[in-house]
Hints:
Elements: H1 6-9, H2 11-18, H3 24-47, H4 54-79, H5 89-109
Amino acid sequence: EYIFRLYDVFAPARFACSLFNGDPAIGFVISNTALVLFGLGCYVFAVRTGHRSTLIWVWIWIIIESINGIAHTVIALAQGAYFPGVATAPLLLMLSMYLFVRVTRGVEDHDPRQV
Length: 115
């Protein structure tokens, strides 16, 4: 996404980057680094520790990654050309589907008496 300058071709990305820095390239690096660190923080402090908020954070990531993967793919198909981020879109979709399956199977196997 950085190499193909998503922040130049996609207005929402340009806006998000501008919140972090006047230079969209630097803002893009900062915003994506913050997003990755946020995800790692969710994993380390909620998921790994089994915090009661774990399920909420996992569902948030499922939704974010699904939307991201689908949006990049749809935009590329609509344009009939490469769109920044479409190369990693299948990976994001597979990750979100994997998490979805794990969460829904975990919910089915969950004993409601242990809430």
